[in-house]
Each structure stands twice: as structure tokens, then as C-alpha cells.
Amino acid sequence: MAYGGKFAFTALGILLAAGLITGAAAQTIKIGVSEPLTGAFAASGNYVTNGARIAADEINASGGILGQKLELVIEDNKSNPTEAAASAEKLIVRDKVPAIMGAWGSSLTLAVMPKLMEYKVPMLVETSSSGKITNSGNPYIFRISPPSAVEAIAFAKILGKLKIGKADFLVINNDWGLGTAQDFSKMFEEKGIKVGLVEKMDQSAQDVSAQLAKIKESDADTLIVTAAVDQLTLVFKQAAALGLKKQFITTGGSQNPDQLIDQAGAAVSGTIHLTFFAPWAPESTPRPDLTRKFVDEWKKRGFPFAGVTESFRGYDGIRTIAAAIEKAGKAEPEAIRAAFWQIEVDGLNGKIKFTKSGPAGMESGQSIPNVYLIRIENGKVVVPQT
Hints:
Elements: H1 2-17, H2 22-25, E1 28-35, H3 42-61, E2 69-76, H4 81-94, E3 100-102, H5 106-119, E4 123-125, H6 132-135, E5 141-143, H7 148-156, E6 166-172, H8 175-190, E7 194-201, H9 209-217, E8 222-226, H10 229-242, E9 247-250, H11 257-264, E10 272-275, H12 288-300, H13 308-328, H14 333-340, E11 345-347, E12 350-352, E13 355-357, E14 364-366, E15 372-377, E16 380-382
Parallel strand pairs: 1-2, 1-3, 3-4, 4-5, 5-14, 6-7, 6-8, 8-9, 9-10
Antiparallel strand pairs: 10-15, 11-12, 13-14, 15-16
């Protein structure tokens, strides 16, 4: 009897250690993360993911959610729409996550959305800007980044600080870039600004000199560029090599100005950028204390300062999901979806509160952050110009 009791106790200990007992497995609340950790958008995806990790660590240090630790289950969507859909399905089916944050790019997020409808799991969209995301009738989508139409409206308010007579576009050939060209063109035409060329580039393109040569011959005074930071570096370097002298303005909040300065040097001097966070000037942000705290932690972990302009999205995204789980009182998809409509979160770039967008009865949630206009001058960021 003594031997049998000892064996039973040991076996129980092994099962507990292995996490095979339901009680042990239930010690964490999982949140899925689908980001481009490799591929064309890898720099941005890793910044966002590291911001998410900081949020999770802060939450756990404060006691977790509903008395349980928060666990991020991170999947690489490889900057590819097919992989993005597969990553979301893995998170839902294999890992049983009750909510997801993702998927960085608009094409990636749009590819995931049918999976959310199929499995009825909500997703917090931290970066994507295509209008289709919140207008297509998916009640499992909640976005904290501004759609390109909102970015265009914000830009319209500060047009008086710039001189634009006619604008050309050079955009990444996906839902993000094409949506930006469409929404900004509409805004320019309403403001009496002429729209010229709309040139496209593939996300893997290593040479855009043909597009830039056409733009150089255009009579437009301004070039609007939409792409991720690594491709923007390519654009600015090749534009400088061609002697293209126009007013450059980037959109989408994914340009990481400090990284552009490091990678493109003098080629980015005088360029203008629309960003969604201003870590260079915490006093200009809605919550200077939160901004300083986050930036300090980012630096403490040895991450490059250049990534802060994207990493805040992951930080705010995870904090928003955590707030919804807390409000729901349980980590169940439908309860979390309902709770998203009831929460307000102090985000690094303003109050996060969702309003309805899309067809009646199937609305997505949209929160509106601040937008900043900054300029790069002589290797430094000048902010803000609002």
C-alpha cells in the first residue's frame, strides 16, 4: 500500500509538471498574435510583437487577468496572405485562443477575416488601414489604427502648412497602398489639388527606378509614398540617385523615421511623414507619462528606438484585448467580442473606444488615434507640425 501511494503521488506530480492536468493548463489566458516576423514586412512585425511582449509582461507583473497569467501565442504570418489565414486558423483550432491581435498589413488582415467569421473569434487590428476591413460587415473586427480615409481627413486639416498643387502617388500594390491612393486622391480633388500618376510597386521589389523615372518627368510637385520602412529606404535612395526633386510625403504610420535616417541618410532629408505616435516629443502625446514609461522600457530591453513608432501598436493592442477580457469576466470569444464595445482604454496615442463601422447589424469596431505630421531635417526628426 505504501509503495502504491508513493507511485500515485509521483505520477500526479509528473502530470502536473507536464501541464496535463486541466487545472495546471488553465493557469494562463492565451491571446493569439499573428504578425509578419519574416518576409517583406518583418521589421515592422517584430517591432509590433515586441511591444506586445512589453504589455503582457506589465499585465502579468500587476497580477494578470482575472487572477491568471497572460500568455501570448505568437505566429509568423510571413508577410503572406495565405500564411496569415493559416496562422489564424492554427491559433484558433490548435491553441484555442479566445482572441487574436494582427495581422499588420491590410492584405494580411483581409485574408484572416473569413477565418474569424468561420470560428467566431474576435481580432484586434493594430496596424492595417484599408477601408474594406471595417466596412465589409465583419463583427469580429476591432481596429485601433486609422483607416486611410481617416488619415486623409486628418491630413486635410493640416494642408495649409504645405504647398501642394499636384500630387503623384507611388504605393505598394496591395490593399493598403491602393486604398491610400484612392482615399487621398478623393481628398485632394475635394480640396482642389490635382492628382497625377498612380504608380505601383510589388512588396518584394528591389528596383523602382522605372516608376521613379516616370514620376521625375511628371509636372507634379509632390509625391505621396505608401510602403513599409525597408521599401521606403529603397525608394528614397533610388530617388536621390535619379535626382528626383519633389516634396516627398509618406503615409500609413509605418515608416519609422529614425530607421529611415539610419538606412537612407541624406536621401531622406526634407521628407515629410504622417505618423500615429510621437515618441520624440512625449509632451505632445495624450498621455506623456505613459509615453515616457513605454519608451524607457523599450530602451531598457535594448530594442532600437526606431521601432517605437510601430511597437506602440502591439502594446496598445494587447492592453485593449486584456481590458476586454477583464470586462467580459471570462476568456470566451463571444464574451470578449461583446466587451470590446463597452471598454475605454488610455492608449499611448489617445483614448481607445470603438464606434460602429460597416453594414447595420454586422458592424466592425473602429477607434480613432491621433495623427502627426513630422519632418526629417539634417538627420533629426522635427515634431510635431500640426
